[in-house]
Amino acid sequence: MKRLCFYKLFVGLCLVWVLPVTVLYVACGRVKTAECPKAWMHPVDQGWEAQLVGEALNDWRQRISLSGANPVLVRDYMASLQRAVVDEGLAGPALVAYADSLATAVGLTRTSALQVFDDVDLVDSNYVSRNVSLALHAFWAADWRDSVLLEVFREFVLPYKLAYELPDNWRDTLYKSHLALVEEQPNMADLDSLYAHHMVRSYYGLSSGDAMNALYPSEPNFSWLALSGEGDCVSRCRNVLYHLRAAGAPAAYDYVPCWGNRPAARHAYVGLAHRKRQLKNLLRNDNDPANLVNDLNAAAFTGRIHVFEKDDLPNGWEVQYEKTLPKMYRETWSAQPAMMALLEDVPLDELDLGLIKPNMQDVTSQYLKARDVELRRPFLWNNKMGYLAVFDVDGWRPVAFARFSWFGKAVFEAVGPNVLYLPMVKEQTRLRAFGDPFVLNADGSRRVFRPDYDSLVSLHLVRKYPLFINSAIHSLNFKGSVIEGANKPGFEDAKMLHTLVEYPFGMHRVRIAEKDSFRYLRLRSLENQAFRIAQLECFTEDGTELIKLENTAYTSGLLKGNDAKAFDGDLSSYMVRTGAAFDFGRPQKVAEVRICPRSDTNFIIPDKDYELLYWDGEWLSLGVKRAGDYFLDFDDVPSGAVYWLRCLTEGREERIFTWEQEGQQWW
Q1: Which of 215, 247, 279 finishes a domain?
Q2: Are residues 155 and 197 in the same domain?
Q3: Residue 398 falls within a domain, yes or no?
Q4: Which residues contact 535 (CB under 8 A, 6 or more apart)?
Q5: Given Cys at both, which of 77, 154, 331, 337 links 253, Cβ 3.0 to 4.6 Å?
Q6: 175, β-bridge pairs
Q7: Domain range for residue 494?
Q8: 94 with 186, same domain?
Q9: In angstroms, what CA-CA distances link 615 with 392, 466, 640?
């Protein structure tokens, strides 16, 4: 009873203080039974099913679901939508519109306050018993059964749902689907083949939209995912989990608490809980394009990645191919003894409940070539818990935790390398640093960053955020394109002015040496490959001053829609064409052409205000500057620090960096 009360208190605290429904995953407790020998894997003794049914029923009586509306109302809502799909053939925007009107009519909204419902009031004992029977039948028929221990089966195959979603009949539906799949494709009896199949078909079977999911008042269960056909990476992983567990596979929900080099966002991956290692090659967070895993650390789909050479990039620019992982955790069905001991021992005001949960395991070493980090708290500090945090624009985010020993030492086990961490403690509602930020090197050593006020440097800044490959790739089709001038609108008299022998990044400048005048100018792909161009600008020269030329085809309104986007001054919009043309209205001498591909617009942009900060126990400002060009220079900057360039005008994508080898090194 004491343990159950603790869980209800914990869930209550999470609901009130910390987590929105989209990231709330905590588990109620249940009685552990001793691990049994592998004989349980063979259905010789039918007593196993009776024993597991008894355990499942005891567990079911303690389980809860979270929903923003009464589950009966939610079920009726879903039934109405399913009838509209089956009977009326509603799909796409029409289904979304109907779901929206129906949700409004019955008062459903995903933003409603979560309510707690006991599962004993939602499903009966027959539902639980059938779930056990189906789980056992699928597992006992599986080729991998001899490699799965009983406790792994209990945690990652047997549960009748994944977390706190409303229970539904997912296992009945998907068990039959699995049998049909294996009959049609016998190789699906192999776990690796089955896993690969569902990581494509079931994962990408959901679109990335959120129009329907926004109309569901809880974490989507299988029935809703099947109906909506959409979801983020978390929902996609949950969809894979449903399919694999229905097949008897011990599929686990593994998640990244926060990226090491990107904004905070929930992200998950599907692991196989009976394996000690999830990847053939452990990750190193070293930006190696050869060691990327789709839907995990790859910043873009690996089949579409182009590896840029150093000479392909402007000075100070580097392409990031990898999303770095500080830690990986696994969500379990039951509370873990080690986590329970920690939660009961550490004062509540020192616990980061957004990170620490009773139903979690640390599986970092199954994904990363990780290292342990040993730190000491300052003398006279009496905190019991320490954290390693990574940067986010909304504040440092704890990703790892460890208890301090009585003499002040904390050992953070299995920490991801090549990530910048800040040692912190939690006091009431605030985080407090107890050391300098450091980068954990691959060999386990640490590079500590501390401002040196006696050694000042000048920083030449070109970006406020790393250039990830999903943005850099838009430069590819520009290389080899030509700039031509002409005085006939059909370019029958075209003259070659320049060939792009490099990839353009940001706002790319091309100096034109030709002295003749032209009324028309165009950028054209010789390979007839469409490129995504955000802006094309032309300038004439008056002495040393560049004067921007207008495109009369745009200013007169002749260009409409997509054709106008390369000339509208908006770097966030773009035109997809094999060419883009200027009409100056009369012949002009063109001195410079500027080309900006589609981009993340995180490079320095003129007429926007930027503030440079550095870390010295807190963020300290080095002043605000308005950009006059596509770079910023800051002088008399303390060396050796961690810096943060903020755009005060617009945008939220910003990352910290260090100054190394005369360039920005991003973290």
Answers
A1: 247
A2: yes
A3: no
A4: 507, 566, 567, 569, 570, 571, 594, 595, 596
A5: 331
A6: none
A7: 470-597
A8: yes
A9: 14, 19, 10
What local confidence, expressed as pLDDT, does residue 304 receive?
A: 87
Among residues 546, 577, 597, the one where a domain terminates is 597
What average pLDDT does the segment 273-286 reach?
97
What confidence score (pLDDT) does residue 43 get? 55
Return the exposure string of 164-197: e unless at least 16 CB atoms fall within 10 Å of the residue's CB, then b.
Answer: bbbbbebbebbbeebeebbeeeeebbebeebbeb
**Would you report the helix, strand and coil content of the chain in percent, each value rounded to 5?**
30, 30, 45
Distance CA 445, CA 140 (A): 47
Average pLDDT, the chain: 92
Position 237 scores a pLDDT of: 97
CA distances from 350 to 362, 392, 428 (A): 20, 20, 7
Question: Is residue 66 included in any domain, yes or no?
Answer: yes
* Closest CA relative to residue 266, chosen from 256, 276, 278: 256
Residue 557 pLDDT > 90: yes
Which residue reads 């509306």 in tokens? Answer: 69
Residue 100: HSE in the Cβ half-sphere, 13 Å Cα cutoff: 10
- Cα(653)–Cα(604) distance, rounded to whole angstroms? 12
Is the same domain home to 557 and 616? Answer: no
Residue 536 corresponds to which amino acid? Answer: L
> Which one-letter DSSP state was computed for residue 146?
G
Say how many residues make up the chain: 667
Residue 343 lies in a domain: no
How far apart (Å, rounded) are the C-alpha atoms in residues 472 and 427? 41
Residue 132 shares a structural domain with residue 170: yes
Residue 184 has pLDDT above 80, yes or no: yes
315 located within any domain: no
**Number of domain units in the chain:** 3
Looking at the structure, tell me whether residues 133 and 208 fall in a common domain.
Answer: yes
Angle at 8 between CA 5 and CA 9, to 5 degrees: 85
Judge whether 261 and 290 are in contact, CB under 8 Å: no
Q: Among 26-30, 452-456, 475-479, 592-596, where is mean pLDDT lowest?
A: 26-30
DSSP annotation string for 64-110: EEEESS-HHHHHHHHHHHHHHHHHH---HHHHHHHHHHHHHHHT--T
